[in-house]
Structures are given as structure tokens and as C-alpha cells.
Amino acid sequence: MMGKDAWTLIGAPRPFDQEFKFVTSPFLSPLVLGTIRLLLAFYTLITLLTILIREAVITHDADSFFSYFTELSYIGLCSYFWASAVQTLCFARRSGDKPSYPLQTWPRFLQFLHSLLWSTVTVFPFIVTPVFWILLSSPSTFKSTFSAWENISVHALNSVFALFEITVSNVSPQPWVHSIFLIILLGAYLCVAYITHATQGFYTYGFLNPVKEKGFLAVYIVAIAIAGFAIFFIVRGLCWLKNRLFFRSSLHGVNLAVEYEKEAIVV
User: What is the domain extent for residue 133?
Assistant: First the structure.
């Protein structure tokens, strides 16, 4: 069983999110924030289902859908928006005398997962987007209306959605230890990529081919890992700056925090 300090270290302190930063914004009301998150949840889900169904019915290569980091990270984005939309809309209904949202009373492991999920959806898109447009895009990227929409959705709008979370929500900089989890997840994806090659006979991304890339393979892997650290650092900095400039001046957020603290003292 993890100790108190360990839970706090990984992003699940007790009480959890006492300033309601996961469900508030310095610019939008909880209801508007929750509604936008819900709309993004629907859009990302429709995008994923459309691509998957098309691959299953038309191109007949749906068996490789879950082998691509792009799709996996987009699934994470979709999952986050569904989870955050539900939590935010619940908070919008309870932001009266006793403000709260369900995640605050859930097991700390789930609180940690939500916090870590936020870290992944604000870092991975900024890896996917430049890697695709710099290394993988080709004239076929926009060869049809569907192809253009698909690539814009999963290789461009993913970063727009991530930037929305970073700039519009009140979420604080996540724990530094999350950067280690992100690198572990990136490493785990390498396993998925090479398992895919072993079982289906192709590399999900050409630069992962050791025969073709030789020594450059290690360069690509290290560069992506470094990029992951750098992006996490930048995101933390942006969140810190945003909260310093806006959260303290957000009367809604401050008042809710005061109410929460009063309730905690009474309990």
C-alpha cells in the first residue's frame, strides 16, 4: 500500500484537487467548460469510429488500427475528454453551497490515473503532430477529402485540443514524476510496434525499421524521448504561468477553494 507522500508525489494528494482546478477555467464557467469538453469528446469519438469502421469495411486493415501511436494517443485524448466532461458537468451542478465532483471521492488510484491521463493528452499530441508532418506526410496526405479530414483531425487538431486544455483549464502543473511515466509509455509503445512487425510483418512507422535506418534508429528514439521531456517541461511552465496570471484573479476559483477549505475544517 502506498504511503501518503507517495500518492501526493504522483498526483493524487488528499484532499484531491481542493481548488477544483481540473473542473474550472479562468475564462469559462464550469458549465461552458464541461460542454466544450463534451463536444470534443463526441468529435474525437466520431473520428475514431469513422476511421476504424472505414478500415474494417473498405480498406480491410482494421487489425492494425491499435498498432499506431497516433490512434492510441487519440484514444487517450477521447477518453480524457469524456472523463473530464462528466466530472466538469457534475461539478457545474454541485457548485453551490457544497461544491464537489465525483472524482474527489473516488479511490486515489483513479485520481492518479486522471492526473496522468491529463499529462499524456497534453504531451503526446505535440510529439505526434511534428513527427507526422516532418517525417511521415506525403502527397497522399491530402489525396482525397476523407484523407485530408482524417489527417487534419488526428495529426493537427489533436494538438489544438491539447493546447485548449493547457490554456483554458485551471489545471496546475502536474508532478515531475509524470515525465518518467510518459517515457515508460513511449517505451511500451516501441514494444507494440515491434510486436506488430513480428505478428503482422510491417513497421508502423518507417523510421523504426532497424535494417533501413541502422544507427539513425537510436537517434530517432532518443530524440523522441528528449522531446517528450522537453514538451512536458514546457507544458508545466505554461500551466504555472497561466495559474500565476489568471487563477488568483478568478473569483470563482478562489471562492470555491475557500468554501472547500471551510467544509474540510468542519469535517
Answer: 15-266
